[in-house]
Amino acid sequence: MEVEGLVAAPGEGSRELCRKGVTEVVVNDDAQAAIMAAMPLEYAAPHTGPMSHSATAIVPTHLGGRRLARLLDSLAAQTTPARTIVVDNDAPEGSVAPLVARHDFAEHLRLQENAGFARAVNAAASGATGDALVLVNDDCVCEPRFIEELVAALDPTTGVVMTAGVLVEAFEPETVDTAGIELDETLLGFDYLNGARESSLGPGTTDPIGPCAGAAAFDRAAFTEVGGFDENLFAYWEDVDLALRLRRAGGRCILAREARATHEHSATLGSGSQRKNYLMGFGRGYVVRKWSVLGSPTRALRLLASDGAICAGQLVLDRTVAGIQGRRDGYVAAAGVPRQPYPADLLTGAPRSSRTLLRRLNRRARLRRRPST
Are 176 and 259 within 8 A, CB to CB? Predict the structure, then answer.
């Protein structure tokens, strides 16, 4: 797939690293690496001191290709190197293995089917080493200190078991795409600080309730202790559910505001696509039931209003009712899952979503303005 690239030439500053075009990707035939058998399956015991710079980065990919090549080139330029497991979610033949083979720090874990984001991450995490897990989407390009800043902010001794990176929009790099997760009282999620100016982030910026899974670090022992991602969630909403479980276990999240990367929003499925709307709807219905959102009539009425507006917007703009179907299927799928008490205590002090319908429309307008790739 031909897209505009975003890697820097030698000698450019760190902010420019994510903002220049790449003109060439070298692709050579190479055998795939069968790494799972060699991976240690045991988990590290919980550590008791400050977080060391020891991490495994995990990159799930379904398309591979030039976006993945750009990401791996940016990970090769990190100030803190990290073992990187690229999870091949049944990508086209030859679109992943040759790119991974270019980098000594990267390993190729091929799945025989597209197992989804949550299962892909959990599979790689089962063989990870080091104190931290760093998650990054394959449509990102990371600044050189991305991993260093994410991992340095972790401190399990004070409860900091999650850190959120900052993704800026690839085609409007002065604009924040996400700096984590924010939730309203119905647990409707939105990308924290989406649409804000990158320059507005500072020491006084509030920490999010949890990180976006596309730019996150987790203490590996804490991630393992709560069971990792819920694999009933194929893609989307797995980060919301995990953040709530980690907070219920006593953890918290810090915004690592200097851990930055550019992001091509929805590069895999496409903004407004039927598949994305379905999966987003599925996750919404699943989390609503799992986390007992409908236990309050007030929350139920607010949910009907907000989700009704979102689904109506998808019907008008995207000409699909997939979001409604997804909500129904997700709610049904959660019937056999142990119910969690509504997390009112976990939302205290966290940034709350507001005016999300308007913000979603503004995001859609920005995405429509970006160049086609």
Answer: no
Per-domain residue ranges of the chain:
14-263, 274-369
Rounded Cα distance, 170 and 139, in Å? 9
Averaged confidence pLDDT in the chain: 85
**Three-class DSSP category at 275:** helix
Give the Cβ contact number of residue 196 at 10 Å: 17
* CA dihedral sign of residues 321, 3, 234, 245: negative
- Helices 322-333 and 297-318 cross at an angle (nearest 10°) of 140
The token pair at 67 is 């976006």
Q: What is the DSSP string of 75-116?
A: HHT-SS--EEEEEEESPPTTSSHHHHTT-TTEEEEEESS---
Whole-angstrom CA distances from 234 to 120, 129, 230, 275, 356 are 9, 24, 9, 11, 24
Structure confidence by residue, pLDDT tens digits, 322-359: 999 999 999 999 999 999 999 999 998 777 666 666 66
Q: Hey, what CATH topology would domain 14-263 get?
A: Spore Coat Polysaccharide Biosynthesis Protein SpsA; Chain A (3.90.550)
Helix (H, G, I), strand (E, B) or coil at 58: strand
pTM beyond 0.90: the answer is: no
CA 73, 74, 75, 78 dihedral sign is: positive
**Residue 209: CA count within 13 A, CB half-sphere:** 31
What is the torsional sign of CA 133, 135, 141, 143? negative
